[in-house]
Write a structure and sequence with these properties.
The complex is a heterodimer of chains A (about 240) and B (about 140).
Chain A (H helix, E strand, L loop, with lengths): L1 H11 L10 H6 L3 E4 L3 E2 L6 H6 L3 H6 L3 E2 L2 H10 L5 H5 L3 H8 L3 E14 L3 E14 L5 E14 L4 H10 L8 H12 L52
Parallel strand pairs in A: 1-3, 1-4, 2-4
Antiparallel strand pairs in A: 4-5, 5-6
Chain B lengths: L1 H15 L15 H10 L4 H17 L8 H11 L3 H14 L4 H15 L1 H7 L4 H6 L1
Helix pairs in contact in B: 2-3, 3-4, 4-5, 5-6
The chains are: A alpha/beta (about 240), B mainly alpha (about 140).
Chain lengths: ~240, ~140
């Protein structure tokens, strides 16, 4: 029974997500994204850097140029912006001008916690992602993700083994949950980013009515199906 | 009946974890995110970080896989921080050439690197400063 609960939570990550207004993001159509250091509201001081390391890959895989996060972090530090909340408080246009970016992604860790109970451990991560335009500073996109992993220490089998890998008593490993949250946040169609210029389906996967001006294409581009290939199957409860 | 189904689904999900829902990777990352993570976890193991970045680039180039955006620059920056300015510039140039979006920043970094090199002869004009000696 416990296994089923965990599996359902994992499968939900791939379920078709709700619709979202993409008009601002589409009309801004950024190519180069700046990812600045993460603001950390959790008590785990290492969380910000650890989480920062997970952001480049899924973003770049959406087809955007992503500025190297460690270089950006170090350059900002050299400029006296070593505190992430200072960076987040800086005018997005100024930040983007500094690096030549089209838009800047601000990520905040709301939760990064492990709760140890008598027979189980619960690991929770919660993030807010906000993308702002590099010229106007306007918000282009936002998402919010929560990832929870609960295990009972007595659980056996494969599910138990996986849970054990995430929830090692001494040092719970948040990274799988963090990566899953990013994958959900950035997946498209859904809450995430339409294909960027380096993906073959660039500008062919946009929601039909939202596009303010048909982008270059002479023909009305067929609503190309860029559905994720994996069709989540829920386990038969019978 | 239920068991094989569960096992299959879990195995599939485990494989997909880094890239979300069944997307093929566009680049050859070679553990870039892991290298960053390890670097933040053990900043004192800097050599390992630099070597890993170098390895990622070499592997991606050798196999014809695309070097991911930012990797040349990240490596260039690591070299720059080590004081290996000339090598750093090579990689800033590679990033700039491969990813036009990076050009303004790379040009800035290349100018900075040139300036970082410039003070050396000026300092040499001053009779051997203890600081410069200490650095060697």
């Amino acid at each position: 029974m416990k296994r089923l609960v965990i599996l359902a939570a994992l499968v939900a990550a791939c379920a078709p997500p709700p619709k979202k207004d993409y008009s601002k993001l589409v009309s801004s159509s950024p190519r180069a994204l700046l990812v600045v250091p993460v603001v950390n509201k959790s008590v785990d001081v290492d969380a910000a850097d650890y989480f920062l390391s997970t952001l480049s890959v899924p973003l770049a895989e959406r087809g955007y140029y992503v500025f190297p996060v460690n270089l950006v972090k170090r350059m900002l530090e050299d400029d006296g912006l070593s505190d992430a909340s200072l960076v987040h408080g800086t005018d997005p246009a100024r930040l983007c001008a500094l690096f030549g970016a089209d838009a800047v992604l601000f990520v905040t860790i709301e939760q990064w916690t492990a709760k140890f109970m008598l027979l189980s451990t619960q690991v929770t991560v919660e993030f807010n992602y906000v993308l702002k335009d590099g010229r106007t500073g306007e918000e282009l996109w936002r998402d919010h993700e929560v990832g929870v992993y609960a295990s009972d220490s007595g659980g056996g089998g494969l599910a138990g083994a996986i849970a054990a890998a995430i929830v090692a008593k001494a040092a719970p490993n948040y990274m799988p949950l963090a990566r899953q949250a990013n994958a959900r946040a950035m997946a498209y169609p859904g809450p995430g980013f339409p294909a960027g210029p380096y993906r073959p389906e660039y500008q062919k996967d946009l929601p039909a009515p939202a596009a303010p001006e048909s982008p270059a294409a002479a023909k009305p581009a067929a609503p190309a199906a860029v559905q994720p290939a994996a069709v989540p199957k829920r386990p038969d409860p019978g | 009946m239920r068991s094989p189904h569960l096992l299959g689904a879990l195995a599939g999900l485990a494989g997909l974890a880094p890239f979300g829902c069944a997307q093929n990777s566009m680049y050859r990352w070679g553990g870039y995110d892991q290298a960053l993570y390890d670097h933040y976890k053990n900043p004192q193991k800097r050599d390992e970080f630099v070597a890993k970045l170098s390895g990622i680039i070499q592997q991606a180039e050798a196999t014809g896989g695309l070097v991911p955006p930012g990797c040349y620059a990240e490596y260039g920056w690591a070299l720059y921080e080590e004081g290996r300015t000339a090598e750093a510039v090579t990689y800033f140039e590679k990033e700039s050439k491969r990813w036009p979006e990076s050009r303004p920043l790379m040009e800035k970094l290349i100018r900075n690197a040139a300036r970082a090199k410039a003070p050396a002869p000026a300092a040499a004009a001053v009779p051997a400063t203890a600081i410069e000696e200490g650095k060697k």
